[in-house]
Amino acid sequence: MARLWHTVLLYNWRSVFAYIPLESQIEKFQEAYYGVISQCHVKGSSDLFIEFMLEQIDKILDEVIVQLGRSDAEASEYVKKMLSIMEYDVPYTAVSIMDMLELKSRETFRKNYINPAMELGIVQMTIPDKPNSRNQRYVKK
User: pTM of this prediction?
Assistant: First the structure.
C-alpha cells in the first residue's frame, strides 16, 4: 500500500510519474528497500528512506532519459505499440504480451512485434541461448 501512495503522491506533484516505473525499480532493490525501512524504524527517523527513494527515482529517471534518447524512428507501429504496454526491465512471457496486445497468432506476434524489437535491441530474451524454452521471457531495455 505504501508503494501505491508513493506513486500517487509523486503523480499529484508531477503527472509524468504516472508513466515512470518506480515500482519496478523498487522490486529490483527490494532487499535494500526493506533494510532502509528497518533502519528508519530503529532510528525513529525517515531520513534514510527519503534518501533511498530519491536515489531510486534518480536512477529510474536516468534510465527513462536514456530510453527516450534512443531513436525509435526505425521501429514499426507494431513494435511501438508493444513497447507502450511493456515496463522496463520486467520479464514478460510471449503469451502475456500477446494477451495485452489482444493477438491470437504467434506467427504474427513473432514477425511483426517481438523479432523486429529484438533486432533493434529494444527487447531482449532472458534466456538467449534457449530461444524456444518454455521459461523464456522478454524484457524491454
Answer: 0.54
Whether residues 87 and 129 fall in one domain: yes
pLDDT in tens, the chain (141 residues): 777 787 788 888 887 777 777 777 788 888 999 999 999 999 999 999 999 988 988 888 887 776 665 656 678 899 999 999 998 888 999 999 999 999 999 999 999 999 999 998 889 999 999 989 999 999 998
Q: What cell was used for 81?
A: 505499440
Count of structural domains within the chain: 2
At 104 the three-state DSSP class reads coil
What is the rounded distance in angstroms from the CA atom of residue 119 to the CA atom of residue 101?
Answer: 20
The single residue listed with the C-alpha cell 534518501 is 51
Widest Cα–Cα separation across the chain: 56
Where in the sequence is the domain holding 136, given as residue range(s)?
77-140
By the 8 A CB rule, do 83 and 120 touch?
A: no
